[in-house]
Automatic annotation (TrEMBL):
Protein's recorded name: Transcriptional regulator, Crp/Fnr family
Keywords: DNA-binding, Transcription, Transcription regulation
GO cellular component: cytosol
Listed Pfam families: cNMP_binding, HTH_Crp_2
One GO MF term attached to the UniProt entry: DNA-binding transcription factor activity
PANTHER family for this protein: CRP FAMILY TRANSCRIPTIONAL REGULATORY PROTEIN, REGULATORY PROTEIN YEIL
HTH crp-type domain: residues covered: 137-203
Residue span, Cyclic nucleotide-binding domain: 4-107
Length: 207
C-alpha cells in the first residue's frame, strides 16, 4: 500500500520532521497500546511496525504492516485523542514522533490540505480491502496474499519474520498457521526452512 503522505513531496516531509529527534526502538517493543492517550503520530525511519487490534478471545488482528518511510497513527490528528490500535516493532526500528500541531500547521496551506484528503481516501480504501480479506479468505489465501504483496509471486523467498510474527501478520493463531504449513508441505506447494520459503507456482492460485 502506498503511504498516506507519499505524494506530498520531499519539501513537505522535511518540514514535517524538521528539528524533531529520532528514537531507536528494539524489536518486540510496544510503541503504543490501543486506547492509550496520545497527541503524536509517527514516521518510521527504519525497520517495520505492525498495527493490530485485540479481540475478546485474545487474538490479535493485524491491520497493517508499516514499512520504512511510512507515517502511522494519523487518527489522533483529527478524530480522537486515543490510539484505536496497538503498534509493535517487528524488528529493530527508528521512529520519529510528530506532534499533532506540526501537521495541522502545514495543512493550513490549501494544496497540501487537498492532497492530504485525497491520500486519506486512498488509505480508507486500503483498510476496507483488509476487512474484506479477513472476512472472506482462509489461512492459505491470507498467507499467499501476504507473501505475494510483500515479495511478489516468486519461487524462493527469504522471510524476515518468524512463524509467530507471520501468523500475527495474517491474523491467525500460530498453531493454525503451523497446521496450514504442514498441509502445504505435504501437498508439495510450500516448504519453510529457517528463513527460506520455497514456493511451487500452484500455491499462488489461492490468491
Amino acid at each position: 500500500m502506498a503511504d498516506l503522505f507519499t505524494h506530498l513531496g520531499e519539501d513537505f516531509m522535511e518540514r514535517l520532521g524538521d528539528g524533531l529527534p529520532s528514537k531507536n526502538i528494539a524489536r518486540g517493543t510496544i510503541i503504543f497500546m490501543e486506547g492509550q492517550e496520545g497527541d503524536h503520530f509517527f514516521c518510521l525511519l527504519r525497520g517495520q511496525v505492525r498495527l493490530f487490534r485485540s479481540t475478546g478471545d485474545g487474538r490479535e488482528v493485524t491491520l497493517h504492516m508499516v514499512e520504512a518511510g511510512d507515517l502511522f497513527a494519523e487518527i489522533v490528528l483529527f478524530e480522537r485523542d486515543t490510539y484505536p490500535a496497538s503498534a509493535v516493532a517487528v524488528e529493530d526500528c527508528s521512529i520519529r514522533a510528530i506532534p499533532r500541531e506540526r501537521l495541522l500547521g502545514l495543512l493550513s496551506e490549501a494544496p497540501l490540505r487537498e492532497e492530504f484528503i485525497r491520500n486519506l481516501v486512498g488509505k480508507m480504501r486500503f483498510l476496507s480491502q483488509q476487512l474484506y480479506v479477513l472476512a472472506t479468505m482462509d489461512v492459505r489465501q491470507r498467507l499467499a496474499r501476504f507473501l505475494a504483496v510483500r515479495f511478489g509471486q516468486v519461487p524462493l523467498i527469504t522471510l524476515d519474520l518468524n512463524k509467530q510474527e507471520t501468523a500475527a501478520a495474517i491474523s491467525v493463531r500460530p498453531e493454525t498457521l503451523s497446521r496450514a504449513l504442514a498441509a502445504l508441505k505435504d501437498e508439495g506447494l510450500l516448504g519453510w526452512s529457517g528463513k527460506t520459503i520455497t514456493v511451487d507456482p500452484r500455491f499462488w492460485k489461492d490468491i
